Records
---
Amino acid sequence: MKFQKPNFFIIGAQKSGTTSLAYYLSQHPNVCMSVPKEPRYFCSDYGDRFRIAKTERQYERCFQHRRPEHLAIGDASPVYLNSRDAVRKIIDYNPEARFIILLRNPIEMAAALHSESLACGDESVASFKTAWHMQDLRTAESEQSGDPYLKGLVYGEVAAVGRQVQRVYQQVSRDRVCIVWFDRFAEDTEGSVKEVLQFLDLSTDVELDYTIKNENRQVKSRMVASAFSAVSQVVRKAGFMGGTGLGTALLHSRLMSRKQKREPLSPQLRSELAAYFTTDIEILEQLTGKDLSHWKSPATECAGVMPGTT
């Protein structure tokens, strides 16, 4: 069977429901999602140590389970939104590609990124406030070392979704971009998924399992998490790249971690983050025509909370 290139990409944002959306879409009889979920093939600016599929042949093997009835073939690598190269390379690869972007209040997104990085062993600083104030240091260390995982710990940069969407719109016509707002996705998951299916020209008359995926987890032992983080750093410095997911699966197991909602941000820290992201949120308002004033309020907690992304 002739290889059919992926024709839609869930490109972000991170910790905004991409894992759940990919799971829901994968159940549709006309959808084929990549295995693994995040090939990360097109984010060349992150380097080969971060990419799971490093060659086109490896990338196409992520879709070897495709069948003739699969009309929509998808790659769900949320790092693409924050990548300088990914969207351009995707368009070069398939000029007809469509893009799905899930957007979340960057204040909540930044805190969720820290929580996830902590659980996965990428983050060694337990306090989000402390990690937030280390961004300049981490930016410098990332540029010096070339470690893509340090780049992912600069939470303000990763969560600045306004500038990232602006970059997408500079390269892709708007009719090929589907925006999914996290708050609505959390409150009306089925309705949001049906809108995505319509965007992909697929039938919405299907029954799907809406179990939430990738729930927030807290490690039971900080000692274990710290040891895991140290081992991960040694492995990466040696030039090896995770792709099997065994380490993450272990840390997310019931033995090592438990499902738990994050602690709310202090009013002072929330106010600091609101000021940091205000300009970026205003960019997003201009691009989408959506009033996001509630995102800029330091007193506002996220109205819709999707357990899979807290």
---
Amino acid sequence: MRMEGFLHNLATDKYKGVILEPLRFILFLLSLIYGSAVRLLILFYRLKPAPKLGCKVISVGNITLGGTGKTTLVEFVAKYLKQNGHKVAVISRGYKKPVTPCPSLVTSYESMGDEPYMLLKRLGGIPVIVDSDRVRGVNYAIRNYGIDTVILDDGFQQWKIKKDLEIVAIDAGQAFGNRHLIPRGILREPLSSLKRADIFVLTKTDISPDVKGIKYFLGKINPRALIVESIHRPVALCGIGKDAQTMDLEKLKGKNTALFSGIGEPGSFEKMAEGLGFKIGLSIKFPDHHPYSEKDLQKIITESEKKNIEVIVTTEKDAVRLEGLPVARLPVGQAGYPLPVMALRIELAIPKDEQVFYTRLLGLYYP
């Protein structure tokens, strides 16, 4: 996992220096090979007719590695469609899950991955199905739940499925990285692939310095697509566990706070905490999707005690990977007072163009 972090820092040009130029050149050559393979795959599936599935198919995906806010966007779309009378299911591949012989309903983080499990907990009755074969997963949802719409979580690279709406999430803070394909950069496809998108949702625009520049670039590459700006809005602090309680965000203003996370873009989590007035005395970063252990928790406790931390905060995505561990009994803070680890709950919001976005969604059903 340390090697993964090292390569990611190279791909995002966080590591500088002439000594790394030979390695960067090798990664560049590999990115050319990767890009050629991706282009051939896209061409192959373009020539091969995609099957028309028996429901509306909405893809929510991205073109880059790392945290773009895609999962909160899936939640936002799914809840809105349900509120408007549609029977919805979410289909996910799962993170680093083996090829499965049959689709599975999400039941736990360990078996299905952190993001699907978090969606299940947040979506309140909307089925979340994990299947390495998305077409099979969609057919399973139609057959067993009578749904009229599926949302493909991380569906932009699903070239063999015919989609009714292609939504692409773009992190406004680091839109396309250095514009190289992986492994030299963070692009999963060539930027020309953005021509397939119907809607671009720029995420975290409240902490981005260059939203206008990104919108101009997207408008040039795909003038027909709708572009909307969104933010991640903190709504509460939640305890971890079955009977966890929530805490008002105002209570942590000025508190000496420790942050820890294992997500694709921890910098945005830190900026959000700072914006809420938390006094960040410690920030511990783990690799994306890190499976936490009691040893990790002990490290967090020890480091927090050294810094006289009053409260520990993590993300909701990290929180689902902490279930089963004794986080509610962590002896953290002055005099060993037992404070729970709190998860920062966030929701996606579209402050400016919310109604335009909704109209585009409902246009699938009422053209």
---
Amino acid sequence: MKVIVTGGAGFIGSHIVDRLVQEGHDVAVVDNLSTGKKKNLNRAARFYKVDILNPKIEKIFQKEKPDRISHHAAQMDVRRSVADPIFDAQVNILGFLNVLENAVRCGAKKVIFASSGGAVYGEQQVHPAPETHPTQPVSPYGISKLAGEHYLYYYQQTAGLSYAALRYANVYGPRQDPFGEAGVVAIFSQKTLLNDQPIINGNGKQTRDYVYIEDVVEAHMAALEDGVQGIFNVGTGRETSVNELFRHLVEIAGTKIKEVYGPEKRGEQIRSVLDYAKLKKATDWEPKVSLQDGLKMTVDYFRQSLKLTT
């Protein structure tokens, strides 16, 4: 199968590229490297350094003629979307439309879309949230991801373009960026290993559904299949507070850092946890990596990348 992965130098995208290559698929990566990293690129995949808003996308898609498009290129920072909703919409809506238009023109059969279960539902009324839960996003990021899902339905209806929109929970694991605002596991992992004080936003009681990257890759591979169509949550169905997460990471890192709290962040939800029963029914997928094991593998990765000894 021939697959284009947008955002294939990023955290989630690069793991998906690795798995596609491992299984013998023909892979091309489109990434502007604004947040993705060259070191994440798989050498077996062809690489195009191009922004998804760029008209050059058309020539790339026509040259590659992919069967599948895995769309992970995005403005992914909730807080940046609040500070700059126009930029968020440019990348996540107009950029995605550029991808979809060219997917249809080049004859692609299916798009796998990285949506956000942590953002499209807004403040949840039901825990864990099924896909039928009302969608009332409280951030421009959540709005743009929900718009992407609606565009997918439109292109499926008008152009016959099949799709699977994967509403990811809070994905974590090796290669996640420990800098910036997104990716609390990566940020806390690196800071605790360096004995640098992490700051917990608000009271730390806000909860998230943390799903390990290997489980996300498995869900993505299942979604590539022809019969898997529609919107699916990808999570664990388990809530973990930021305070609990902090304590786990401090214990795994072997440090004695105490909790320090800062102000709450605008646009942040209080509770978020996903019901993955629909995806399990369609593909038999379910998360296999426990939070404790996933956090340990993540901390070990950062320990190695920082060249620290145990």
---
Amino acid sequence: MPDLDQQRFVLGLTGGIACYKSAELLRRMQDHGADIDVVMTEAATHFMTTTTMQALSGRPVYTDAWDSRVSNSMAHISLTRGARAVLIAPASADFIAKLAHGMADDLLSTLCLARGACPLLIAPAMNREMWEHPATQRNVAQLRADGVMILGPGTGDQACGEVGDGRMLEPQQLLQEIIAFVQPKPLAGKTVLITAGPTAEKIDPVRVISNRSSGKTGYAIARAAYEAGAKVILVSGPTALPAPYGVPRIEVETAAQMHAAVMSQARSCDVFIAVAAVADWHVVNASDNKIKKTAANQPPALQFAPNPDILAEVAQMPGGPWCVGFAAETESLHDNAQAKRQRKGVPLLVGNLAQDSMGGDATTFVLFDDDGMEELPRLSKIEAARRLIDAIAKRLPDRA
């Protein structure tokens, strides 16, 4: 099911060059199943035509508080009733000031004042000096205190030629914020530490020993934890994936580096989810120079030593986080996963078959705990991750 399926949003546009991003945002929200009513201020129509937004949305566009197309002539009331949220993107400095002071002199501002329990999200867009001005900062602080969700702004090049804070977030970033907004928040207030991807152990400067892990499962779980309201810290081995939106990433290469990064963060976290495919051994006699073939073409004599067991060490940490392990098996999944859970000393272990999941976009999770096992249906990795996060939240004990 699409993330925004059968949910209606009111998208408000105020005056600013970032209106062009709103057209793209509308289409991407529609791709995820949303229905969207568009309301534009008079200033917004100088940057984007109502014809364009109507063609894209497939619905009438509203600009006038006296619009007679609404049966009761009360568009400022009717449009928000039953809407999942009102999103103002772009939100100009002027419109933010109106919201902060309860002004209602056009359809969009009146609609925001009359929205009742309908949530309000705003995506600021303005010059950096306007964003940094004390008046704007006071207004934004007031809106936050009033329960308005502020999305961004971003930083970077601006249409005026200056660089700094004030850019409206990009459509894909806003989409991720909206999808996260509609998800339940069972981990609100929690901090979740996640490892993902492979590790790579040096043989020489150009060769490594690694695991066949794309990182997709761990990154999906990081995204799902963020959507669930958690502060997420991702420790990642080498992958080709971008960091999930809103999630800081600590990049490592070796198991020793991953161990150090995890141990520096673990004690301050509520949950540790060890998804990474960590190499079991490292090469003791790794070469500082590229190893050349010999005349006899003999392979090098590599000597191995075990890497630290990150999950087991965190699980034994006094006062440490609640731990979740992963087992990617190729056979005897149930026996091997349950044995690994007991060996590591973790309350929950997630098993799956490597050949069924590795590198793909779907997976089948089997959850193992003291009560036995629960097999989830085959799902996309993000849907499986959301189901796992919900399962973790239900099992998570209160920390003293």
